[in-house]
Each structure stands twice: as C-alpha cells, then as structure tokens.
Request: fold
Amino acid sequence: MENRVFQTVQLEVIKAWVEERNGKPARVKSSKDAKKGKDGILRIDFGEPGPELEPMSWKEFGKIFDEHMLAFLFQEETAKGEISHFYKFVKRKPKH
Reply:
C-alpha cells in the first residue's frame, strides 16, 4: 500500500477525516498563547481529553484554522494498509 500524504484547507474534508477516526477538535490549554487569552495550538483529540487538551467546536476550530492561514496534512492509510492517524498543521503557501 502507498502511504501518501494529502493536504487540504477544506474544513468538511478535515472534519470527515477526524470523525472517521473518532477524533474531536481540540487545542492545547497550556500553550503560552492560550494563557494570554489567544487561540492556543490546534490539535485533534483521538481519546479522552487530557488536562492538556481543551475540547472545542468545529466552528471555533475553523475560525482559528482560517485566521492563522493553516493547511491540514493527513494520511488515509499506513504503509501496511491500516487506518492512519497521522496529521500535521502547516502554514498555507501564498497564492501567486
């Protein structure tokens, strides 16, 4: 199997990928930005929220995602053909 990595900025694609893996949008509460009342670092929570993750709505997630001009890198399957939980947030490349 191929373990290709895809990139999207479409919230519906991100939401479908996350929910297919029983994940939820979250942010890191302990980040410096969150302590200053800013957005915090976006994460996907695939388990019970720990003390370091704060659950958030998809609407709030999308707002922060767009405001910070992020893109979502993700993998559908591992090289062994299993469901992958790999993801990463990266800055969007400017359009020319």
